[in-house]
């Protein structure tokens, strides 16, 4: 759009180099999945090792020659690096290879651009792409610069490069304003849920861990779910009823990945804020993935970056069917529900997940016995509609004795609507809890 580059095709030669610095190493299998998710056809993979990246080309002259031969052999039009390239490295590689060169960040941005469906998602992707492009504009426009030295070559006004940089800055500023409005709307929605005391639960996890499959099974939603990286990009919120808790709002969020580009994190901050301000994070993990521990670390790192590091979380080990395991619930040292093993695809272990969510969210349950007069039929009906009544008996005077169990906020709301004094009932709560335990 903003600069001319060699035409790109779908047949690609991939480049993966192992460097001594372990923090810079990428996963080859994940790289292949990213390429396929983008719609490219991997023709060959060039691998190698170096002590450190070449400042000019990332790879050495020998590997560059191998790369030329692979491009000719496979008639490929695209080279994709499993690394982040500087603008000058990309420019030098394209000049040397005479084909389109893409780095890992550009590849992920391309996948995000394909997956975005909502207006907000498209804005966020465009913002990340424009900020990524802004450092690479010089490559394609040098031949159009109108200000040149020498008699007869000096032109008035700005260069084409400066014009496009100005247009780029204007577009970025406009998108920021739109996303600020989106962020304000999301903040207002979250405040409304907070006032209504409705807990929010966000599904987070590494990409392709099975979040959307689990989300669809729990909420009867129809979020797109597929065995590919970044199948879900746009966040989806649904209402869900949990026993002993009542209604909650569950959010399905974009998956994380190793070395997620910082500009993507910044662009999607409005979306990821759902996770940062959630009551509970459900961290979905692919239990069958041999890299699961590394993936857990990556997810934790992104959560720290967006300010969600301190939000309580429940681990969900998904895809137990691939391990031949039965669902189970593991507890922490303090006897809290900590990890649920289940299979979202097979639909097993959901009862354990609901039990864990109920325990983690229902932190203020009231268990008491309520004595209602015949005139309090409305309150009795409301308690039954909330599934709060555990036992009902009647005395000789026709009064109703109800053993109830429900969140304190719901009981207070019902008593307020019935013009009842909460102290008349809550004072019995401790006594009722003792009777319950007996």
TrEMBL record:
The keyword GTP-binding applies. GTP binds at residues 205-212, 230-234, 252-255, 318-321, 343-345. Its cofactor is Mg(2+). Keywords: Cytoplasm, GTP-binding, Magnesium, Metal-binding, Nucleotide-binding. Mg(2+) binds at residues 212, 232. Pfam families: GTP-bdg_M (PF16360), GTP-bdg_N (PF13167), MMR_HSR1 (PF01926). It is found in: Cytoplasm. GO terms for molecular function: GTP binding; GTPase activity; guanosine tetraphosphate binding; metal ion binding; ribosome binding. GO terms for cellular component: cytoplasm. PROSITE patterns: G_HFLX. Monomer. Associates with the 50S ribosomal subunit. Belongs to the TRAFAC class OBG-HflX-like GTPase superfamily. HflX GTPase family. GTPase that associates with the 50S ribosomal subunit and may have a role during protein synthesis or ribosome biogenesis. This is GTPase HflX. It comes from Kushneria marisflavi.
């Amino acid at each position: 759009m903003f600069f001319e580059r060699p035409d790109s095709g779908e047949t690609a030669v991939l480049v993966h180099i192992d460097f001594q610095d372990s923090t810079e190493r990428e996963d080859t299998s994940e790289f292949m999945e990213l390429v396929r998710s983008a719609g490219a056809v991997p023709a060959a993979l060039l691998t190698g090792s170096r002590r450190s990246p070449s400042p000019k080309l990332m790879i050495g002259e020998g590997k560059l020659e191998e790369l030329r031969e692979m491009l000719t052999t496979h008639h490929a039009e695209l080279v994709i690096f499993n690394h982040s390239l500087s603008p000058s490295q990309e420019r030098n590689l394209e000049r040397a290879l005479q084909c389109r060169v893409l780095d890992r960040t550009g590849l992920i941005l391309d996948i995000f651009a394909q997956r975005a469906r909502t207006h907000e998602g498209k804005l966020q992707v465009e913002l990340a792409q424009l900020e990524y492009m802004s450092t690479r504009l010089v490559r394609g426009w040098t031949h159009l610069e109108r200000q040149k030295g020498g008699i007869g070559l000096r032109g008035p006004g700005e260069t084409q490069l400066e014009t496009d940089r100005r247009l780029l800055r204007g577009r970025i500023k406009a998108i920021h304003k739109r996303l600020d409005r989106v962020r304000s709307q999301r903040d207002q929605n979250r405040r409304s849920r907070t006032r209504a005391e409705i807990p929010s639960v966000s599904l987070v996890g590494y990409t392709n861990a099975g979040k959307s499959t689990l989300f669809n099974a729990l909420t009867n939603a129809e979020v797109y779910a597929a065995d590919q990286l970044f199948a879900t990009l746009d966040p989806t919120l649904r209402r869900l009823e949990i026993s002993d808790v009542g209604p909650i709002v569950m959010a399905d969020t974009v998956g994380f990945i190793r070395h997620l580009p910082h500009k993507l994190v910044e662009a999607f901050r409005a979306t990821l804020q759902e996770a940062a301000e959630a009551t509970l994070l459900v961290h979905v993990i692919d239990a069958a993935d041999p890299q699961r521990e590394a993936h857990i670390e990556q997810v934790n790192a992104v959560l720290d970056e967006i300010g969600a590091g301190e939000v309580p979380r429940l681990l969900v080990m998904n895809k137990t069917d691939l391990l031949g395991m039965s669902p189970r619930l593991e507890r922490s040292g303090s006897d809290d529900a900590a990890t649920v093993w289940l299979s979202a695809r097979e639909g097993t272990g959901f009862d354990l997940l609901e039990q864990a969510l109920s325990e983690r969210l229902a932190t203020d349950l009231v268990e008491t016995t309520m004595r209602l007069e015949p005139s309090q039929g409305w309150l009795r009906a409301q308690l039954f509609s909330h599934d709060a009544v555990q036992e009902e008996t009647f005395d000789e005077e026709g009064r109703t004795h109800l053993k109830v169990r429900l969140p304190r906020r719901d009981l207070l709301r019902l008593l307020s609507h019935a013009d009842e004094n909460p102290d008349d009932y809550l004072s019995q709560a401790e006594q009722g809890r003792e009777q319950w335990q007996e």
